[in-house]
Amino acid sequence: MILKPALRKELVKWGFLLPCLVFMMLMAVFPLGWSLSLSFTKWLGTIMAKPQWHGLNNFRDIIFSDPRFWADLGFTMRFVAMAVTLELGIGLGLAHLLHEPFRGYRFFRVLFLIPMACPPIAVAFIWKMMVHPDVGIINSMISAVGLAKVKWTTSTIVAPFTIVMVDVWEWTPFMFLALLAAYQALPEEVYQAAAIDGASKGQMFRRITLPLISPLILTIVLIRTIDAFKLFELVFGITSAGPANSTEALSYYIYLTGIKWFNLGKGAAMSWVFLIILLSISMFLLSRFRKRD
Amino acid sequence: MYKKVTLISVLLLLPLLLFVGCKEEEAAEVETVSMEKPDFSGRTLSILVNDTHVQVVDAWKPLWERETGGKINVILVPYAGISDKLWIDFRTQTGAIDCAAIPSSWLGDMAGGGHVVEVDPLIEKWGYPDWDDALPAVKVITGWAGKTMAFPYDGDNHMTYYRKDALEVPEYQAKFKAKYGYDYHMPPKDWDEVRDIAEFFNGWDWDGDGEIEYGVSFIAQQKTQAMWEVLNLVAQYATIAGEPSNTTSNIFFNSDTMEPLVNTPGWIEAFRRIGELTQWAPPGLLGYGYSEFRYAYVSGNACLGFDWGDVGIMEQYPDEYGSEVKGLLGYGPLPGAKKYWDHVNNKWVEKEHQVNFLNFGGWVWIISKYSKNVDMSYHWITYITNPERSLLDACGIHGYTGVNPWRKSHFDPAVLGLWKRGGWDEGAAKGYAKGILDILTDPYAVTDLRIPGGERYYDALDMRLAEVLAGKSTAEKACQSLYDDWVKITDEYGKEDQKRYYLESLGL
Question: Greatest CA span in chain A, whole angstroms?
């Protein structure tokens, strides 16, 4: 059978596209669609074999009568703001210090990358032991110099900062690495011209360096913000959301609802509300950065 | 255009079509295999256990594999991971897990949801190694809706631990009497005495080891097992021992109305008292999960402790668990109270009394309904839980296994020699065994919450308790919030269904 050229072209096109489309359907679109449809159902997986239509009740419940959801969102947002700001600040400082070769700079570059290379759950359990209020090495060192032990994980005030501290330890290298690459790509001539014009180091940093690397800053801040919102392992491993839920991240609550209690309908709805909030924040950040540009 | 739309529609529907025709896998048929000398060659049994029970598995796995020819695939998870793994397997019906050791309080969801194999027909078919040897309280926790749905494996209940080298010192007794105006009991008779002893023995080196000791210690970390600590007090202040009814040996719900009792003065009193105790506890108390507490307590850092029988086992092992208190611990039942709240007549009743509580209920083994190795599972479970082998797991010979004595034969004076081999001296073994036996043979012991959604009720309890322990909330506020949480959960699961399950769990 001889096919018409146009039909043949169509078939070839779809032949190449089909595997990708099927893969996309299975891996991305189907789960998203499935979870969205699930969010309109009541499905207590432990006792109900099948989901029941529940309309908007899950969303109503989350928005109007679940203070824990909002408290956890509040903690997550405070965590993201603190952690990302500190990571950016420290990462920028380190990149600024280490972008020019000095004795042993290669060693430091490798050293700073180690935390990022560790699996997050391993980081969590290592830090859990290090910050243990009674037997942790950090408190042992603190008490060895005559200071009072810190309630790293047992105070509702200190524990959230402990989570931030560990996240900063783990993810500052990411900021550092990205900014270091940006620093090394900066054109030398611009600085030479500025130096001839009598610009100080501070002026060069504010007027040249920052504007040139700001597109990259925008990108890495966005990546880290989205990633930090998914905070889970550190909470799971270090504090188990305690004490008194003071470190319960929203993703942890979603895990409890959907996986631990098998309240699948509400878990899916919470995920969608979280996704919408996260997208809104990302869009807001993007628009702010664009305006500034 | 039309063709494109059709093609895209087909592509969009393709993933859905893949699911059409998928049928729920039928539960595996029970095979007819001889249990006398079975041959499981070429087959693998997948079992799910947590970090403590893996000691039991490690002890018996090589022998079992040699005797049966089968292989065991151990899926080892921390406590927090057991339910996740199981539920995913139940919901996907893959049968990747054949059998598992779980808390008996989960049977409400797991047996109620129809995910575990009923045990009675299996016992009828293959027999069971001395069913009558299991203590009645332990048999109760294997049941659900009138059927046996799990295998007994562990006798779990909280007991009081106290330091004899503190409470038995005449000088300290005299000083205590001078300060509080009465002689304390050993173990403390009620929570008033616990309060005073904790205060008295807090913050000074009463055992002369050069370190400061604290008054009291218990599991207090959120998302571990802290809720069972407050239930020790709730059992005393919210009910009185008796044939289970709405007013006796009942602490969770009004069994007539299914209204939670958690905001009644009995519960508030329990929350207030446990919050008060934190001021006489080690500084890291809120970071004490069950392991942290046990290691810290046997290191000798506190006078009083409340826990399952595991502390007694760890006490015997200075090398393995760093015990500094071998031979120094006393054991007893939970402290009682001088009053309890009568929730029907809404009044405090002044009466000295004590209520035993089957915290956690005990670990049990279940066989997954989706298992294709029911016969292997049955053989494995009955192999490790027969009277002789289970004794070795419970008496300390296999170390800290998480298994506490649960068969009558475990308490038989004739097996005292094995307890001694487990590291105990005779007096300690007798005291420990008596402490547990008194509770497990109490027909009026309050049973744990065993209804669907149990984990959610307890998560809410855990969260509200954590607020009180951390000083973030008052007992009154926390209990009111807990009431709201429990009402919401009950409504979600259906009030009438929950009431029916609750009455069943009380045996009414």
Answer: 91
Contact predicate A41/A53, CB 8 Å: yes
The CATH number of the domain where B419 resides is what? 3.40.190.10
Q: Which of B436, B465, B494 is the last residue of a domain?
A: B436
Structure tokens at A205: 């940093």
- Read off the pLDDT of residues B3-13 as tens digits, 9 standing for 90 and up: 554 444 444 44
* Token output for A150: 């810190």
- B308 lies in a domain? yes
Q: Which residues of chain B have pLDDT under 70?
A: 1-34
Please judge whether A246 and B470 are an interchain contact, meaning their C-beta atoms are less than 8 angstroms apart: yes
**Which runs of consecutive H residues, i.e. helices, occur in B27-78?**
54-68
Helices A67-98 and A210-229: angle between axes, nearest 10 degrees: 140
CA–CA distance, A31 with B488 (Å, rounded to integer): 29
Second-level CATH architecture of A66-246: Orthogonal Bundle (1.10)
Is residue B119 assigned to a domain? yes
Report residue A98 as tokens.
């280490």
pLDDT digit string, tens, across residues A84-103: 999 999 999 989 888 887 77
CB A236 within 8 A of CB A226: no
Please spell the DSSP secondary structure of B248-273, one letter per residue: BS--SB-TTT--B-TTSHHHHHHHHH
Residue showing tokens 């409340």: B306
Q: Does one domain contain both B148 and B164?
A: no
DSSP-derived letter for residue B303 is E
CA distance A285 to A288: 5
Whole-number pLDDT of residue A111: 84
Helices of type H across B20-93: 54-68, 79-92
Per residue in B422-457, pLDDT tens? Answer: 888 888 899 889 888 988 899 899 989 989 888 899
User: Residue B439 is which amino acid?
Assistant: I
Among the three residues B404, B436, B468, which one is the final residue of a domain in this structure?
B436
CB B349 within 8 A of CB B340: yes
Decide if B23 contacts A37 (C-beta within 8 A).
no
Partner residues linked to B446 by β-bridges: B357
Non-local CB neighbours of B158 within 8 Å, separated by 6+ positions: B228, B229, B232, B306, B307, B308, B334, B357, B359
Residue A11: how many CA atoms within 13 Å on its side-chain side? 6
Domain hosting B406: range is 44-152+362-436
Q: At what angle do helices B54-68 and B387-394 cross, to 10 degrees?
A: 150
Q: Report the residue from B15, B80, B113 with minimal CB separation from A46.
A: B113
Average pLDDT, chain A: 91
Inter-chain touch A244–B113, beta carbons under 8 Å: no
β-pair type (B214-217, B302-307): parallel
Which of B211, B223, B301 is the best substitution to test chain A (most A C-beta atoms within 10 A)? B223
Q: Report if residue B395 sits inside a domain.
A: yes
Within a domain: residue B405? Answer: yes
Task: Report which DSSP code applies to B408.
Answer: G
Q: How many pairs of residues across A and B have Cβ atoms under 8 Å apart?
A: 116
Whole-angstrom distance, CA of residue A225 vs CA of residue B207: 53
How far is Cα B297 from Cα A146, in angstroms, rounded to an integer? 25
Specify the amino acid at residue A233: E
Query: Which residues in chain A have their CB less than 8 angstroms from residue B285's CB?
Result: 154
Contacts of A235 in chain B (CB under 8 A): none
**Average pLDDT per block of 10 residues along chain A, 293 residues long:** 82 92 88 94 87 95 94 97 97 88 79 88 94 90 92 94 97 93 91 92 92 91 94 94 93 93 94 94 83 64
Which residues 212-231 of B have a C-beta within 8 angstroms of A? 221-224
Choose, out of A64, A262, A263, A264, the residue to mutate when testing the contact with B (most B CBs < 10 Å).
A262
Contact with chain A for residue B157, Cβ under 8 A: no
Q: Which residues are bridge partners to B353 per DSSP?
A: B337
